[in-house]
Specification:
Rossmann fold; alpha/beta; five-stranded parallel beta sheet; single chain; 148 residues
């Protein structure tokens, strides 16, 4: 098994800190990467951090990550209807944590609470802001360090 933890980010997260800061906060995706590295690297894990607005690129990244120590994914809008991303997640043999910055179950539009990807995830963190990313990386590192 690889000692890499992947953190994958979906559409529009490249504008984190600018887009709807009242919902997503003012921290940028670079801040999130710094947070994740500060958790992963002291535990001996390589962090591979990516963002894409393209569904096919997310699928390629999931296939690359499928045998890693774990994947933390904020699929953003891919979570509502991307069956190809779901299928790619189902091919992963590592644990996956679905991360959402906002609490998707308390959002203004009911459709935002329906993620089709959760069935392929080991667990979900929702509504803890960008701190959820660090918690996901910590969880995945802990699983990878458990014997057998």
């Amino acid at each position: 098994m690889s000692r890499a933890i992947y953190v994958l980010n979906g559409p529009n997260l490249n504008l984190l800190g600018e887009r709807q800061p009242e919902i997503y906060g003012s921290q940028t995706l670079a801040d999130v990467e710094t947070l994740c590295r500060s958790v992963a690297e002291p535990l001996g894990f390589e962090l591979r951090f990516h963002q894409t607005n393209a569904e096919h690129v997310m699928i390629d990244l999931l296939q690359e990550a499928r045998r890693s120590a774990g994947i933390a994914i904020n699929p953003a809008a891919f979570c509502y209807n991307s069956v190809p991303v779901l299928d790619a997640m189902k091919m992963c043999v590592c644990p996956i944590v679905e991360v959402h910055i906002s609490n998707i179950h308390r959002r203004e539009a009911e459709w935002r609470s329906h993620t089709i990807l959760t069935v392929a995830a080991t667990g979900m963190i929702s509504g803890l802001g960008v701190a959820g990313y660090g918690l996901a990386v910590q969880f995945l590192a802990g699983l990878a360090q458990k014997p057998g």
